[in-house]
């Protein structure tokens, strides 16, 4: 019995000894497989990183942005550039600041499309006025591009505005495709200025009002002061102009009405150089452009030579 028990015990001990290494071997195989799989995934990720092109350097971004700005005919000498990303069509989008004038958002299409940062900001403000929560899309963020007033002052200089500009804004597009801006002057009447292609023109606010427009940055007193300057050196130089308006023009010149404090008003005809050619008292100017409206006529009389505006 003892011998049989010893034999059974020996068999059990052998079984226990052989089972433990078999389980350990299974776990070791699993561990090796996991390590192998992990190494394979890491290697694949490393290969993907190695295949992926390195991000462009700042110098490469500047060069690419300048190329796109040139192809888009922006006349922009790029001073700063940002690569904003890539579109679904695999085109690149850049924001650029320029040595002069506005910056641009440029998409590298064929040909590239360029959007003026000043006009982009204006469009966003118009949309936000209608809906403050509206999505206005990407906007220019380079500091030089967010100072739109600086760019608008440059526009006023290009248009020949003869004053220190203290306010300016985008008005929109004119019927002929030009872009209109209003500029206000410090202590003087302002202007509308227009850019059409590479040409700039300016229109005094007193003329804008006569043509049915409006100037937010010019007061009635500033328009009156402008006409008083026109009267300097004429027989109406003593008129303390309190109100003024542009009546119109004909082949003989431009006609302005001036209301004078404590005196009869006048109509002044000036030539293309803004030099007064003739003064008509309101009392005798009923037939010139319909007569004075700022100063009631005291008497009716035929219009002097010079014709209607």
Structural key phrases:
about 300 residues, alpha+beta, 4-stranded antiparallel β-sheet, 7 helices, 12 strands
Could you explain the architecture of this structure?
This protein is an alpha+beta fold. Helix content is 36%, strand content 27%. The chain has seven helices and twelve strands. It has a four-stranded antiparallel β-sheet. A hairpin with a 5-residue loop joins β5 and β6 (179-185). The chain starts with a helix and ends in a 28-residue tail after the last strand. Residues 1-26 and 299-303 have low confidence and may be disordered.
Summed up:
The protein has 309 residues and is of the alpha+beta class. The chain contains 7 helices and 12 strands.
Please indicate the percent range of residues in DSSP E strands (runs of 2 or more): 25-35%
Number of strands: 12
Category by helix and strand content: alpha+beta
Can you summarize the main beta sheet?
Answer: 4 strands, antiparallel
Give me the number of helical elements: 7
Overall pLDDT: 85
Envelope shape: elongated
Strand order of the largest sheet: 1-2-3-4
Radius of gyration: 40 Å
- Termini distance? 143 Å
Unreliable residue runs:
1-26, 299-303
Helical percentage = 25-40%
Helices and strands, in N-to-C order? HHEEEEHHHEEEEHHEEEE
Topology:
Elements: H1 2-51, H2 58-71, E1 78-86, E2 92-98, E3 104-107, E4 113-116, H3 117-130, H4 143-146, H5 148-158, E5 165-173, E6 179-185, E7 188-196, E8 199-204, H6 205-210, H7 220-231, E9 241-250, E10 253-260, E11 266-270, E12 276-281
Antiparallel strand pairs: 1-2, 2-3, 3-4, 5-6, 6-7, 7-8, 9-10, 10-11, 11-12
